[in-house]
Amino acid sequence: MVVSMQVDIVSAEGSIFSGKAEMVFAQAADGEVGILPHHTPFLSSLKPGQVRVIYGDEEDCFFINSGIIEVQPEVLTILADTAIRAEDLDQAAAEEAKRNAEDAMKNAKFDTDIAKAQVELAEAVAQIQAITKLRDRLHKTGLAK
């Protein structure tokens, strides 16, 4: 019998995923975490990055720009500012956002401008990484288009 936990990923726009999963990976404040059913209760902020939800032979990938992860023994909840399915990410837009953030950092006159550009750069890089990981996974499984 496969052990699973309830996983809910919710953003300001609404629920993006709700279902049973056998494992979840996320970018917590102190690094990537892997969560299995019956995990010790855990609460952390999330950094921009990929969240992977594994169930059976399937895996769903999402991009989270920031938020909170709460883990209880039977339930994992992610409350995200923005959550996007990885396959819905636009690589050209992410590359453009990265260039814009890099330009903003070079031309910043105030610390607050630098900090804002750093956040935008981190989000763009995380999106590009999520797209790259999804593409690599699809190539490995033979599902690439």
Please characterize this protein's 3D structure.
By secondary structure, this protein is α+β, with helices and mostly antiparallel strands. The chain has two domains: 5-86, Sandwich (ATP Synthase, domain 1); 89-141, Single alpha-helices involved in coiled-coils or other helix-helix interfaces (Up-down Bundle), CATH 1.20.5. The chain has helices spanning 91-107, 111-141, and strands spanning 5-11, 14-21, 23-28, 31-35, 42-46, 49-55, 58-64, 67-71, 75-80, 83-85. The strands form two sheets. It has a five-stranded mixed beta sheet, with no helix packed on it. α1 packs antiparallel against α2. The protein starts with a strand and ends with a helix.
What layout of secondary structure does this protein have?
Elements: E1 5-11, E2 14-21, E3 23-28, E4 31-35, E5 42-46, E6 49-55, E7 58-64, E8 67-71, E9 75-80, E10 83-85, H1 91-107, H2 111-141
Parallel strand pairs: 1-9
Antiparallel strand pairs: 1-2, 3-4, 3-6, 5-8, 6-7, 7-10, 8-9
| CATH C-level label of the largest domain | Mainly Beta
Provide the helix percentage. 25-40%
- The CATH superfamily of the largest domain is identified as F0F1 ATP synthase delta/epsilon subunit, N-terminal
The number of domains is: 2
The radius of gyration over CA amounts to 16 Å
Structural class based on helices, strands and sheet pairing = alpha+beta
Determine the mean pLDDT.
89
Number of helices: 2
Write down how many β-strands occur, each being a DSSP E stretch of 2 or more residues.
10
CATH topology of the largest domain: ATP Synthase, domain 1
Based on Cα principal axes, name the global outline. Answer: globular
- Share of β-strand residues: 35-45%
CATH architecture of the largest domain, please? Sandwich
Main sheet: which strands, in order across? 2-1-9-8-5
Tell me about the largest β-sheet.
5 strands, mixed
Low-confidence stretches: none
Q: Give, in order, the helices and strands.
A: EEEEEEEEEEHH
Q: How far apart are the first and last residues' alpha carbons, in Å?
A: 34 Å
